[in-house]
Amino acid sequence: MGIRDARIDAYIAKSAEFAKPILCHLREVVHAACPEVEETMKRSFPHFLYKGMLCSMAAFKEHCAFGFWKGALVVGDDGKAEGAMGTFGRITKIADLPSKKVLTGYIKAAMKLNDEGVKTPGRIKSKQPKEVVVPDDLASMLRANKKALATFEKLSPSHKREYIEWITEAKTEATRSRRLQTALEWMAEGKPRNWKYMSR
Known about the structure:
Layout: H1 6-14, H2 19-33, E1 38-42, E2 45-49, E3 53-59, E4 64-68, H3 71-75, H4 100-115, H5 136-143, H6 146-154, H7 157-168, H8 173-188
Antiparallel strand pairs: 1-2, 2-3, 3-4
Helix pairs in contact: 2-4, 6-8, 7-8
């Protein structure tokens, strides 16, 4: 029996209207093809586990993405991920995905790779941890707020990067300024960037 994660229900509920049926469809196809699948949230979007990473899905403003952890080994040249995260490119409707039968075949193939312990080709883990570079404006604001600074210093490198990327990816100065203020408030309350999606 698979394990469902309430954070994924919340993720789907908060997604754009066009994305909800796509995410629900993908979720059900994965569970039907792999009854032992476990759900989790990683990097703030849904992942499916079966003897390791199996696949993941995500919703954006105008498209969804779905991909296999060992995509190249699962779909070969059939993938069309150019310009988008995932194995099947930009998904704006269920019809953009392979049929349920084909998708099920891919999921079974991904499961078989995990059963056999096949490693993802070309994934070499660096022994050196990736350095966390704090932008000047965030560093300055943290120095002025002891509670926020204490939280930031306790965060893992990946959680620090989640805050930093959220701030630096802002397209306008106004958005960046708002995100800085929100980040500071959340950190002053001891919260990581994706606290809303974490189980209580």
